[in-house]
Amino acid sequence: MISTFMADYKANWNVKKRTLCKPEETNYRDDSIKFDGTTTQNQEFKAWTVSKPEVPLWGRKPVYKQPMEGMALNSTYSMDYDDPKVIVAAASMKPPPREEDIIKASGDGKAFKPSSTYNNTFKEWRGAQPAKTFLVKSQYNPPRDKMEFESTHRKCYTGQLAQKAEIIRHSSEHRQLNKDGIFYFQTTYNATYKDHRPKSCPGTGRGKMPVAVKTAWQEDLSSKKELNESHDSGIDMIECEN
């Protein structure tokens, strides 16, 4: 198989390979003397002595001096409120009980029976019955007539049988073709352009073509010839001479 580019532009087989400008790797020379660490920067640039900046008098902080006397632990609270030595419980504000409020038991030896005005006045009513309820209990009775499953909407609005609307959508032509189910190899390009195919002939080069390339080109040309004869009946294929 050969293309137009391969047929027109021939490769130069006898061209000499160009020389590279890359330097050789053998230019490195090993030095027997060890490196002492001196460089051009170390010789030219020396370390500059920098003095520590002095702080002015107004910016100096005073030095802490420890006081000679002890710290006074007196405070306003300790001076105003004295610490009581003995803590006395606060006196109760509840008044003491009186003699007439204390009920003393009699000396007959009987147990005390508690009684009150309510217990002496209101006695239990025996024979009382619970009040009757006024709630009317209704018993469910199923209806005798059958239920009609019709609503107000169904009684008032009766439906009318209508035919199904036709589809207004326009169907394309290719949907209506090939109703018999047979597939046709037709395209828009083939239906529009009815002219014959143009004859193709690769250009001939002046240089000598290699044997392998020439053989592949001849095989491809023969296959194209058979294909063109099948498509374009009655038209002869013009072969190009090399």
Describe this structure in words.
This protein is mainly α. The protein has helices at about 5-10, 40-45, 75-80, 115-120, 150-155, 175, 190, 210-230. The longest helix has 21 residues, at about 210-230. The chain starts with a helix and ends in an 11-residue tail after the last helix. Residues about 235-240 have low confidence and may be disordered.
Secondary-structure class: mainly alpha
Helix percentage: 10-25%
Determine the strand fraction and express it as a percent band.
Answer: under 5%
- Give the radius of gyration: 64 Å
The ordered H/E elements are HHHHHHHH
pLDDT < 50 runs, ≥5 residues? 234-242
User: How far from one another are the termini?
Assistant: 16 Å
Number of H- or I-type helical stretches: 8
Described by strand count, sense and barrel closure, the largest sheet is: none
Mean pLDDT: 75
Strands, total number: 0
User: What overall geometry do the principal axes of the alpha carbons give?
Assistant: flat
Descriptors for this entry?
242 residues, mainly alpha, microtubule binding, SAXO1/2
Strand and helix map with partners:
Layout: H1 4-8, H2 40-44, H3 76-80, H4 117-121, H5 152-156, H6 173-176, H7 188-192, H8 211-231
Brief digest:
Belongs to the FAM154 family. This protein has helices spanning 4-8, 40-44, 76-80, 117-121, 152-156, 173-176, 188-192, 211-231. With 242 residues, the chain is an all-alpha fold.
